[in-house]
Design a protein that fits this description.
about 400 residues; alpha/beta; Aspartate Aminotransferase, domain 1; Aspartate Aminotransferase, domain 2; 2 domains; 4-stranded antiparallel beta sheet; 13 strands; about 40% helix; about 15% strand
Amino acid sequence: MSPRTTTPPPAEDLVIGAQPSRPTADTRALHQLQRALDHAERPFLGFPDHLLQVMAELAPLLGLLDDQHGGPYETGRFEEGTHPYKRALLDYFAVIAGSSPNETHGHVASCPRAALHSALALARRRLPQPSVYVSAEAHHDVAKTCERLGMNAVRIQALPDGTMDPDDLRLQTRLRYGAGALVVATCGTPMRGATDNIADLRTAAVSSGPVHVHVDASAGALAAAHSSQAPPWSLAHGADSLTLSGHPLLSLPVPAGILLVRREQAPADGSQSTLPLRVPLTGTHSGLGALLLWTRLRSLGRTGVAAMVARGQDVAAHALERLDSAGASPQHLPGSLTVTFERPPAWVIDKWRLRSEAGLARITTTGPMTHAAVDQLAADLRSARGRAAA
């Protein structure tokens, strides 16, 4: 077995044995680990951080038992719990997505992947046999969800900036004329932070028959909603459904996914029933993520979220300038909080824990990504180029 595939044995004091351990000793060890990680000098700029202050403030919520079965619009003695908080979240995100609570309905899922699963399953009820058109730059969860649902996923080429290619979409839908199209657009692609123009994509797919445009906006919704530079991406621009999340920007310790669907949608068979969102398709789910998300958004308010986005965009502009001066060939899309650049040597990737693929690395200008951190990263990139030239 190669060193890459060898799994090291667990430490003796971590083995789960036949007899119960001493809880106090385990808790003490976990506290020591937490303190060690808090004081670690190793930076972490590849992904948003978990804000320690926020986690400390929200820690009491971990003691809640909230095993939910119904959707946020259910009523009854066992279904109140966190439902009012979830309805408040849906109202907030409906406005963020360019609509209103009266025009949309939805539910709060345990994670963006669960929300995406519900979204594609609901879209299939409206278009029973559509192909799902997915960008090559979309999150891998989209293709995996299509596979789980038994839906035919058609890969669409991406343009150099990471957005879905409308011309390739037009070609692929014409090859399946009359079958209808479920187009999954992205607001905030995993690597480049690109946002698809859903108006262009809907126009490109129209020859296939009925078109349903779903937007996976889990990574980019909050930034796009507070930026004047974002292309058409929301319900206001013609999306039929969206999945959103707040934890990438807000640095929550657990995720929560939001699904929004236009109320006027009905099944393609002409029946009068609306899409059933009373009960999430994923079954029972915890309300903890919803409570954490609601608490964080309440503490910030709309102005606070807008300020976070503005700060991130300012740091992204600074990064574009500093990384360019370091010779890293950075790229940044208008309104995005993601900056990509040439993949540096392994020691830089490891030091800053950067995400990298296909010759590129990226930073996301949230959480720990300050002007000072950008300057330190740029210095390392400059040093790496100097070593390579020596």
